[in-house]
Task: structure prediction
Amino acid sequence: MNLKKRSLDSSPDGIWFRRNRKNMYSIAALLPLVEGAGLANGPKEGIMLYSFATAQAEEIRREVESSKVDAVYVAGGPHPSARPEEALQHFDYVVIGEGEETLPELIGVIRSGGDPEMVRGIAYMRDGTARITPAREHVDLDEYPPFRPPIFSPLEISRGCPWGCAYCQTPRLFGRNMRHRSISTILKYARCYSDLRFTSPNSLAYGSDGIHPRMDKVERLLKSLSELDKPIYFGTFPSEVRPDFVSEEALDLVVRYCKNRYLSIGGQSGSDRILKMIGRGHDVETVRRACEICLNRGIVPNLDLIVGLPEETPEDQRMTLDLAREVVGGGGRIRAHHFIPLPGTPLEDAAPAPLSDEVAKEMGKLALRGKATGTWAQR
Result:
């Protein structure tokens, strides 16, 4: 263990969010809540705040281990939340899950020399043992700003997901009950933008429980936003929509109110067996129908696919390739990537299936034609 602890009864010199291009959405949400915090391109004296996913974990570990800076190191985000004991090998504290309430409270305890045991939703070391305090309730999004200028992010309109797909961290971090910002709150912050883009586990689930669509509430949101006279991009990256929420009614709203002429759709596999195994809650025909509805309305489906899912056979991969060809042949696009086991998910210990030579070759051809993006080779 290589912790750079300062005495908790001293006042740290500053509070710093470690800036990198992968964590700016987290910084945008948390910076307004931490008075006097700044951004840093590396460790600085005071309290150093890191938010990161699994892909950045090794790089950040090396940075913290090699740092000579006298600081209190605090980790948060998907990877530390799923593996707090691992993070405590390099950090002094871990914020588990949502940080809006937990992080300011923890910083107050650090600066005052209080007892961290009183802070819910954190992990820390005491007497050589990792301590994890009781979990905190999920936050009411309306109580917290989504950003503070000049740090912006796409407007987060919803959080949480009821489906619990086996590869996904979202329901493990944010719960399986969807929460939504109210239209009045969304409008307040939408006025800060020249065009409007959003984050949500499923944009077309706005106002719903995430299982049963409420297009009346989606329409109320889009109609209200349209009165701001700004271009609206809805259901586009970094958000996406579930194929079972794509309907004629939904596309009517996109065409009527939105600027985007493509829709990001989470299809994930062309194999019904694999879709059932990962708990997607829809079949391949639902994906096909969603893409067809889009194309018939002049909307390009940008279909997200995962290859190399555990237990995937060459035949399963061929079915996914066939689906990709079918969508591209109709005028759609593919965004594909190879399965990465993420901590805290049911598949975190599962071995990725190797990618067949046929699928790798054909996906490469689609990419050369400008019809596919992503990284489908195993890392």
In short: Residues 314-330 form the longest helix (17 residues). Residues 1-12 have pLDDT under 50 and may be disordered. The longest strand covers residues 300-307. Residues 15-132 form a domain with the Rossmann fold fold (CATH 3.40.50.280).
